Amino acid sequence: MDYDRxxxxxxxxCCFAGEKRxxxxxxxxxxxxxxxxxxSCELCNFSTDNKQLMKRHPSFYAPHSKARLFxxxxxxxxxxxxxYLKVNPNPQQVDPEQHLSKWKQEASVLFWITKRKPKPSSxxxxxxxLISSINLPVLQSAxxxxxxxxxxxxxxxxxxxxxxxxxx
Length: 168
Ligand SMILES: [Zn+2]
Ligand SMILES: [Zn+2]
Hints:
The protein is 46% helix and 11% strand. It is mainly α. It folds into 2 domains: 33-87, no CATH class; 104-168, no CATH class. Strands 2-1-6 form a 3-stranded antiparallel sheet. Strands 4-3-5 form a 3-stranded antiparallel sheet, covered by helices on one side.
């Protein structure tokens, strides 16, 4: 699968943004139900599309061990954790076209630049200067939406130059 390295994909349901692989993982983990994942556990309802994670979940997912203890006490434990593994023959897939929105190349580049800034306070300041010196509306909206998730307490923070609306 082509993961389109460097390009930013944003979740259509929240402000999560990151590389395609991360965005797909985010969407599947957050919005797919137990029965929509490839693997699920009938004991604790843990679900994932990752087989290794599925195998390991009894060791880090507390509800599983609690449920195992409870089932054992009740005398209904099936004898092994594997006995609860359910495989979905038709798992729901994340469709990047439908569930994610792909940022423009320029906006993606700026996203990673702003992500890499070491100090959040100075990053906000320099990014504001960056925003007011850029004329591409797509970059402004990308940066603005990014910084809306990290509020800057300033009555008129951006002071964007007015840009004629363009159609793509
Ligand atoms: Zn989301
Ligand atoms: Zn489980």
